[in-house]
Model the fold of this input.
Amino acid sequence: MKVKFIGGAGTVTGSKILVESNGIRILIDCGLFQGIKPLRERNWEPLPILASTIDFVLLTHGHLDHCGWLPRLVDQGFRGKIYCSAPTKAIAKLILLDSAKIQEEEAEKSNKAKYSKHEVAQPLYDVEQAKKVFALFKVVKTNEVVHLDAEISAIFFNAGHIIGACSIELKIENKTLVFSGDVGRDNDALMYPPTKPKKADYVFLESTYGNRLHLISDVKLELEMYINNTVEKGGTVIIPSFAVERAQMVMYLLWQLRKEDKIPNIPYVIGSPMGVSVFDIFFDNLKWHKLSIEECVAMGKMFTMISDYKDTIDTVYNKQPKVVIAASGMVTGGRVLSYLERYIELPETTVAIVGYQAEGTRGRKLLEGAKKAIIYGKYYQVRAKILEIEGLSAHGDQKDLLNWLSALETNLKKCSWFTAKINLQMSC
Done:
């Protein structure tokens, strides 16, 4: 057996783990690299093996850094099955379409404004390429055995993190390999605690927050304070947010604050089509989260849900104080840029960063105090107040990860690790 890390090693994005055994090749996740330019450029590189020789993809969840390279994989010849949970299939379809549209739009704008170094800017993949992935999805139920081969089977089990997220137990060559995917928090307000693995010879554990603990902070109080202070100045609060889980978490907290009459009765806007669609997925998959149907309905009534771009422009130019939640979470694309073009130069604006900002992203630069922001090739003076709200991460921290490992009944075997340029390889 061979296990090779093609992504998600040395960086937190681009997750791809290749497992090879007796002529069968399995890819655990197929994510997009995000962040600084050298990382993004890796998205254009082919895999170290032919995509057509991969038999299966096992998808832990629908975040872009775990599923966003699937259109490239299919375009390069992959024709196998992509196994995942029902919510992950729904979310991955939204994520891939949104990613493709953003890349098409940015390539088009780059070509019109001529701010690309390439003679003709091309998207990494387009909408039609993204759609070709959909027919390969195969939904699996949690805690049921999926037979991939006569001697290879997999079981998906709840990982918390976001709706539909799973860890994967792979039985292969009489060994049990557990791939954590992204592990959620034990005390998440929306997601159930992740299921702990009990048996494993090898565990492949994410470690985004493996060396630290989440700050203990009163997120509701911070939101209350920032919104009230901004509205008193006649300003707008813009919350760049990942459309999956983070947007719904912020919605939940704002709903709680409104019920307690701690924030004003102003427009609260979900400003991206994907954020609206993901909320619909919460309605369709009640067993995957803690909210009842009645709570989902009540929470949804508080927000103006915007999908049409014309409505986005109307909202952008409406001078009334408001709170806008819009993707992308790292301010790298999406509708949030339309709001920032209008509001980032206004000193009464507050931009509240509520998620991890990878190195090189526009969100990270804003947090680091950038005085100018480049949006679609144009410079904008950053006069808005840039604030960070910590404590909303959907990743488990060091304590959560150790707790996730605590139920193992077997001693893990040791592995030898080899580093070669951007790849890591393990021989078991």
